[in-house]
Structures are given as C-alpha cells and as structure tokens.
C-alpha cells in the first residue's frame, strides 16, 4: 500500500509539472486518468501492480 501511494503521488507531481510547463494538456491528463481506471479493472491489473512493486524494489536497493 505504501508503494502505491508513493507512486500515485510521484505521478501526480510529474503530471502537475507537465501541465504547468504546457507539455501536457488537461484533456490528455484526464484521458490518462480514465485509462488508468480502465486498466485497474482488467486482468492486467495484477501484472502492472507486480511490475511497479518490482521496480520500486530495485530502485529502493540502489546505492548512489
């Protein structure tokens, strides 16, 4: 659950930066949100979740 909240916040910050910079239109952001909700209801959701968790684990073990 902590990873999910962190990823959501990171993506939200990234989307807000893109919106403010003019690289992302509001309509595109809404479309991406709708796509995310749609993907969450499909059979791909567990695969996506495990991929995000694995990536977060790899990034968490990196030493700068």
Describe the structure.
The chain has 64 residues and is mostly helical.
Instruction: Catalogue the unreliable spans.
Output: none
Distance between the termini: 25 Å
- The number of helical elements comes to 3
Tell me the strand percentage band. Answer: under 5%
Number of strands: 0
Radius of gyration: 14 Å
Order of helices and strands: HHH
Annotate the secondary structure layout:
Blueprint: H1 2-21, H2 26-40, H3 45-60
Characteristic terms for this protein:
3 helices, 64 residues, 80% helix, mainly alpha, single chain
Summarize the structure.
The chain has 64 residues and is mainly α. The protein contains 3 helices and no strands.
